[in-house]
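Newbie here. two chains, one complex. Structure please?
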Amino acid sequence: MEKLIDKQRVVQYMDGRLLRNNVLKFLFFLATLFGLIVLVVLLYRIFTQAIGWLNVDFLNNFPSRRPENAGIKAGLVGSLWLMVIVAPVSLILGVGTAIYLEEYAKKSRFTDFIQTNISNLAGVPSIVFGLLGLTIFVRELNLGRSILAAGLTMSLLVLPVIVVAAQEAIRAVPNQLREASYGMGATKWQTIYRIVLPAAIPGILTGSILALSRAIGETAPLVVLGIPTFLAYLPQGILDTFTVMPMQIYNWTSRPQADFQNVAAAGIVVLLVVLIFMNSIAIFIRNKFQKRY
Amino acid sequence: MAMTDGNRSYSVRKMIKENKKKQNGQQFIEWLMPKLLLLTATISVLTTIGILFTLLFETFIFFERVSIVEFLTSKEWLPWDEKTGSFGIAPLVTGTLLTTAIAMLVAIPIGLASAIYLSEYASEKARKVLKPILEVLAGIPTIVYGFFALTFVTPLLQKVIPNLGIFNALSPGIVMGIMIIPMVASLSEDAMSSVPNSIREGALGLGSTKLEVALKVVLPAATSGIVASFMLAISRAVGETMIVAVAGGSSPVLTFDVTKSIQTLTAYIVQVTTGDAGYGTTVYYSIYAVGMTLFVFTLAMNLLAQYISRRFREEY
């Protein structure tokens, strides 16, 4: 009897398909690992360059023409000053917008417009925000190259991220809580202020801290504003000129002397430590306080 | 009617009065808060209007001094000499497109492959470890990537390509691609994860291998989300500043040679604003025209991404 199925051919064909599956699975896995490998190389490279340059003097010194005397004090303090403006302004505007959109706004063209506008703003390159800040805050409002001008520019830059994070956090608060509050005779604002916000705050904070850490690492808009890199004093108030860590690193990176590359690496380590610190706070808040309903 | 309780006396009328006062205050807050919140919500709209108006207004002044025909057609960007200067946007645009293309050649295959691995092959455990690590890659400040491109990737590439300049398009392009991998991976993975399992199970039941499920079933079903993620990645690469400013150089020349120093739209703005081009000079206004070009490019890409993901989404 003639065989209807040629077993050998089927096995051969199947082997090919399985081989392809396994080979590509391995390649896909390698692609995923690629990012991890680059991350390790990058961190290793920067830490080995920074070793020897990273000491207490580096944290305590102002920038200098001589690499061995250069320090990041002005940048570190400046970055903290920047947060003094960015944190309250972006949080109030961002959370306010999110509450309005989630709790008050009726579904209308205007609401849709605000929502679309926010997602488009998130896609605008940061350097364009710098141009906005240069024209409006530095020149028109005459704030100069101050902490206030830079802080307001950065607040607008991170605003869309905070709005989206806050919206998600508010949306995750179940409606039963709101209804129970209304049932007890609470008004709308009382419900939002005493029920919805406390429940949403861990989510809002987690998203906001991540957004603020983006503002700490951002360089381009500040370059456009003309923030100086060589400052030998600390700012005393929000109208003073200042510098931040990324600007300092940018300046050191673009200097020709090889030693300044090591100084830049040391600066990057300090910047990364600050970012890791902020991110761990965010993760801590998420794990500790976030409730699942 | 009055009740006495020790020294204090209460009257019902007084209590009603006080209660009303309190309620009036409450009502005022109820009236005020939505308006205050609406005010905060309009800030984001005002930001967009602000961006549009500053760019339009200053670009308009620029075009009073330099003809728009020259801006669009001239092949030379020599802004520093007021007399013999030429303002042709082409070299900056090609510089930008060159680095963007290199970045996409890195980010799209690797990002998509990672997305396929994470969504189709990886166990729940592996995904929980790998995804946050990829996200760390996305959280590193761009100036750090710029430093990495200039001090590590360029010297490394110079060993392979001896005539590679210190500043070139290749190295920042590659590093920018690496930076964008997490974005492509996570957006594409989201698109692929939203393909329902029943479809996968159907294909597996018919005897497909996992690879065939991924490439012939899941990928086509998630195309709109994946293509949208590519568009967003392009937009991100076009707007990226510090990597190209640090490692790309500042020579606006019309070239497609990746080993040469180039200048992108963003790097030009950085060059002008770190230098001392005085307020009111043509060079000063030129950064707004360049910024406008950049804004139009990225906005178009973002809108295209939104359109694709809405229009071609497969609904299950």
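Moderator note: Chain B has a mean pLDDT of 87. The radius of gyration of chain B is 28 Å. Thread marked as resolved.
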